[in-house]
Structure to design on (459 residues):
């Protein structure tokens, strides 16, 4: 069922959902996944197993296992030695296949010393392949499984979407969310037919594959063929692979996902994005993968709306010796043209910020000195909705009653078309628009200058 849901979503091109996972979310998500994976592997590294599927539960069960004396000293030494060997080889001999050497060395040691009875091992693979099977589900079962299947599908797609984007960016490649959905959808349908587990990208196996030199999908095909070969030819070979060595491999790979410097950079450049990344991390670690993603996407929307609700706004002024018009807050040496106020609002106008826009204009006009003309540098305004249109009309009436001429410069054609569709083409006729701020100023002053073609400065 999970596969069908993902396949349908991919066919409907719903892969854009991955765009909701911004870089701060991806960084926090991967940091959280890495920590969860590492903590989940600690008991295996120490030579015992636990029954828990959460970060807090794993931490508690690991601590209890250590205090109860469940640590297998031999398995722990093998795991720590494997961990040290992998890290050491990667530090000093980067071209050497560290994971392969560690795994092969551990297996040889277990085989030579017959330690597979003393330490936990992966165990022999079952011989042969399962036969495909269909049926066995009633419509009642289908109805009861839709909710869980949807949740698993969201987790699978989130895993795949985040990991594919991160690793594609590392290698200068691009990914399609819809293609990913269709791919994992078909994979899950095939897996379900053979009684397999749900399929998605793996936050542990993916970095392991990359660190081993994998670059294309061929590695998955090769791995599958090797597993089939093991199943038929040497299913007992993994009976010599210590679980602690496998845990060491996974821990090293998961550690490669942790990116603390990225969080520090986000905090320094944009604290809100840094906090979103930390929220994603905490959500994944403390609440759960699916819940953490949903919470963080919700916080992202709140941050986005807050940014659009209170965008950057500026009064533009002239600066002696500089062409164009510049942000007064960044250039306090600038000055107004007598009677003219030039304002810029750096966001689309919509229901959440239309009132703030008009309040800002009124406050600037009221602050004085006397204003006869207001010019709106509208190039950053990429859209306007019906609520903001009403606010714009009210502002125009307010300015007209105050004897202030309202001109609009640099407004994009599609936004003008939107005003016309709202029936404002008569109120805001061609005489109210100018191609540039300089042209609007010249229209007010009644003369031409060299900087007619100068747009408003971005600073």
């Amino acid at each position: 069922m999970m596969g069908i849901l993902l396949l349908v979503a991919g066919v409907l091109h719903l892969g854009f959902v991955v765009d909701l996972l911004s870089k701060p979310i991806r960084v926090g998500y991967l940091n959280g996944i890495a920590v969860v994976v590492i903590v989940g592997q600690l008991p295996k590294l120490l030579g015992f197993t636990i029954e828990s599927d959460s970060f807090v539960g794993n931490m508690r069960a690991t601590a209890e296992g250590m205090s109860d004396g469940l640590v297998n000293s031999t398995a722990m030494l093998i795991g720590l030695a494997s961990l040290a060997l992998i890290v050491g080889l990667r530090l000093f001999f980067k071209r050497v296949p560290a994971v392969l050497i560690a795994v092969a060395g551990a297996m040889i040691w277990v085989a030579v010393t017959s330690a597979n009875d003393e330490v936990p091992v992966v165990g022999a693979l079952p011989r042969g392949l399962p036969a495909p099977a269909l049926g066995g589900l009633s419509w009642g079962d289908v109805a009861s499984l839709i909710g869980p299947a949807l949740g698993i599908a969201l987790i699978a797609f989130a895993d795949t979407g985040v990991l594919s984007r991160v690793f594609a960016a590392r290698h200068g490649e691009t990914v399609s969310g819809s293609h990913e959905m269709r791919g994992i959808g078909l994979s899950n349908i095939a897996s379900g037919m053979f009684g397999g587990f749900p399929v998605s990208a793996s936050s542990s196996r993916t970095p392991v594959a990359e660190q081993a030199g994998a670059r294309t999908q061929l590695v998955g095909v090769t791995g599958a063929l090797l597993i089939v070969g093991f199943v038929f030819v040497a299913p007992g070979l993994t009976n010599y692979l210590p679980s602690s060595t496998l845990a060491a491999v996974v821990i090293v790979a998961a550690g490669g996902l942790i990116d603390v410097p990225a969080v520090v950079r986000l905090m320094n450049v944009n604290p809100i994005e840094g906090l979103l990344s930390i929220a994603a991390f905490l959500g994944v670690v403390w609440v759960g993968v699916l819940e953490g993603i949903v919470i963080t996407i919700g916080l992202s929307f709140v941050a986005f709306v807050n940014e659009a609700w209170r965008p950057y706004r500026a009064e533009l002024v002239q600066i002696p010796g500089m062409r164009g018009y510049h942000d007064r807050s960044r250039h306090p040496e600038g000055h107004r043209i007598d009677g003219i106020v030039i304002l810029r609002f750096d966001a689309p106008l919509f229901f959440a910020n239309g009132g703030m826009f008009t309040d800002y204009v009124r406050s600037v006009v009221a602050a004085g000195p006397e204003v006869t003309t207001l010019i709106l540098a509208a190039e950053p305004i990429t859209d306007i909705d019906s609520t903001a249109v009403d606010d714009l009309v009210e502002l125009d009436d307010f300015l007209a009653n105050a004897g202030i001429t309202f001109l609009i410069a640099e407004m994009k054609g599609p936004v003008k078309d939107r005003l016309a569709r709202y029936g404002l083409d008569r109120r805001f006729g061609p005489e109210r628009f100018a191609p540039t701020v300089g042209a609007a100023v010249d229209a007010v002053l009644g003369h031409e200058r060299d900087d007619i073609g100068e747009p408003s400065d971005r600073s």
Summary: The longest strand covers residues 340-345.
